[in-house]
Amino acid sequence: MNNYVVIARFDNATDKKLNQLRKSFENAGYSVPEWPVHITIAAYEGIDEKQICDWTQEFCKSHKKVIVNLCSVGIFPPNKSRNVIYLAPAYSKIFVDFYYDFHQRYGEYCTGIGRYNSIVNDSPSIHCTIAEINTDDLQNAIKLVFNSKCFEKSKITALEVYTYPMRLLKKFELK
Hints:
The chain is of the alpha+beta class. The protein has 4 helices and 7 strands.
């Protein structure tokens, strides 16, 4: 029993654009995650690896690639003056249904590391983390996001299962 994260991966064009955005943050001296660009679907504590991989594979076999519209930028509240800045998709019915469908199983394992992704309280914060920045740098960071022209429709093409800390276990293509 370990900790796992299931992430949604974007099409190649979106991946490239968001990596360029992260590079601009890096060049400005901000901390960017080691994770590939993604939307976190779920984060689990104390679940069996085979169990989560089997469910992710089953889910991907029965779900199509989904269009998301990255249309806003958000900031998680600061932790000791450090903020997580992220892009958020529009909460279209198709995407929200996709997200909630994945959570039909194993919700009881979305605890500490899954707090922003759990539907248990019906208030997940669906997001794509870009960088971690100091509160004093928020205005400059927002300018970098707006200059990136990353607010557009994208496609989620696959789900990946990672250990936490990060190590890719398996990638599952959506149909």
